[in-house]
Every structure is written in C-alpha cells, then in structure tokens.
Amino acid sequence: MQSNNIEINLMPSSLVVCNTFRDIQWLNFSEHSVSRDINIFRIKVSQFASSMHHIHSLLNSDEILRMNRYRLEADQQRFSIARSILRVLLGRQVDLNPIDIHFTDIFNKKPRLKDFAHVHHSVSHSGDWIVIAIAGSPVGIDVEKVDSNFFFPDVVAHSFSQAEKEYIENNDSPRTRFYQLWTRKEALAKAKGHGIDDNFYRIPSIDGTHNVEKEPPYFTENWAISGFNVAGEYLAAIAYRLETTRQAIHFFNVDPDLLSSQSV
Question: N or C end of the chain: which has fewer CB within 10 A?
Fold first, then answer.
C-alpha cells in the first residue's frame, strides 16, 4: 500500500541575529569600570610608537619569541602592543599585575585566561587599529581595513551564501559590503574558536534574524553579531551569545596613558 505521509524535518534550530551599531560613542578609558558587561576597546597603533620599551617589558618570553617571528617591524609592533594592552586590561579585570596573567592551552586557536573561566576575551588587529573585547561570556571580535587592492570576488564565491552574494554585488560599494559581512563571519568563528573552513558560507551575516540548523561547529547556541565602524575605512564586528543581549555593550578608547601606571 502506498504511503502518503509527508516527512517533516524536526531538526532543532538556532537563532543568529545580525545588526549594525551606528553613532557609537567611544568613551575615554577613565570612564571604564570592571564589570561582566561586554567591553570593546580600540587602540591606535601609531600612538604607541614611543612606548615600545615599556610595552616589551609587559610580555613574557613566549610572547617575545612570537613577536620575533614576524619579519616586518610594523607587524612586530602591532603584535606586542596588542598583547601588552590585553595583559593590562585583563589584569584590571581580575586584579593581577599584567605580567602575572597566564593563559591556558589554546583550544581551537582560542586562548583562555587561566584560573578565571568567567572572563572571556578576543583580539583582532588590522593596519593601524587593534580591537579587544572582554566580557563575562564568550565573545569574538574582528576588524578589517577596507583594502582597495584585495580581489574579494574569489572569497565571495566560496564563503558567502547566494543571498549574501547578491547583497554584495547589487550595490554601489560592493567592496565595503564585502568587508561588512566578512568581519561578522570572522567574529562568530573567533567566538567559537574555529578557523575559516568549507562551512563559512553558512554563517549568516546580513542584518536580520536567521534560523539555522543547530549543529556543530558554529550553531550550538543562539548568537548575536553586531557590526560597527572603528574609524575611517576600518570595519569591525562583535559576536556574543544572544542570551547576553541584556548586558550593556561599552566602547572605549585606549591611549598610551593606560601604560603610565603599570609596573612589572
């Protein structure tokens, strides 16, 4: 006997909500207070050129080795500034001297703060800007400078959905839209501790609420991904658990004065 039953896909789903933060107010670091909110810090690399000796003094031996693996001095400086300021910020968060901050073994390329499982962080840098996110729940952050020489269509073909391809292509500024969406995908990948893979196209990145199949590696929880502008042609995104959207998100400038009170 022929069956007329219709198979229904009962696969559970996750939500990914994408949006854009506009008209951000970047506060002075003096207004920052330790909390479990989501705190985003921007650092202009060129402002720290005269502080490099102090910056190096905040790094441990492994970080010095990693720094020296970069062949270009600009890359060495960017890495050391990012690591030293991360140490200072985390030290304030857990009341430790920056040099006493220790990280656990890297899990899927995502280091974690040793002995303080409730403190989460993420770091990204591009060109003259570094961004750091610190929160009481998992976060991922990414910043990219809009590069006029980068041939992005090859990436679009492999790592974006059909709807995203049309969103990028049907616009007067497809390059800007590419970076807008790319930073969102990168932010979620970093929050989950995963690199770029063949499933990257499945990470939603267009503004709106997206229903996705709940399966590893990305979609085991509900996520929010918010894009924002760091400065000029620098675009960024922050990914965080959707359940934490009631937490405040704060934006801060970090300048060399942060290092003036640090000792080792």
Answer: N
94 and 116 Cβ atoms separated by less than 8 Å: yes
What is the model's pTM?
0.91
Neighbours of 37 (CB within 10 A): 14
Q: What is the arrangement of strands in the sheet containing 120-126, beginning at the earlier edge strand?
A: 27-28, 249-254, 38-44, 129-135, 120-126
CA proximity to 17, closest of 206, 209, 188: 209
187 neighbors 21 (Cβ within 8 angstroms): no
- Rounded CA-CA distance 204/193 in Å is 17
Q: pLDDT-derived band of residue 137, with 50, 70 and 90 as boundaries?
A: very high
Residue range 13-260 in CATH 3.40.50.360: no
Token pair 């006029």 is found at: 148
pLDDT (tens digit, 9 = 90+) per residue, 91-130? 999 999 999 999 987 666 678 898 998 999 999 999 999 9
